[in-house]
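Session log. Operator J.P. requested a structure for one protein chain; no other inputs attached. Running the standard single-chain path with token output.
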Amino acid sequence: MPQLINIGKELLRINTTKNTIEYSQNGGRSWVTRCNSTSYGTFIDLLQVGREILACTSKGLYASQNDWLSFSPRCTNTSSYGDFLNLQENGNELLANTSKGLYYSRNGGRSWIGR
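Structure written below.
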């Protein structure tokens, strides 16, 4: 489960102790909080897809397009798909491992189909 990703000159991570998204511009020697809202639930996994960051959280899947300052709900229907555990890009598909099995999406995670 990637909790640390490299995006250009920055490292982006989930600080599991504080449940925040943090960034570093000096190779991880120091970290600055970028997103600390509890409204998303607990951050679990991060994935960069194009210019977006997708975040698996305890409340579903969220997406950020504004330098990871905030996230918008992308798929929060956990009753249908289960809890999102991790994501992976597979060509033109996103794969999601959930508590209800493996799902794929061809529309950026807006809807999912069981595999």
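Operator note: The radius of gyration is 14 Å.
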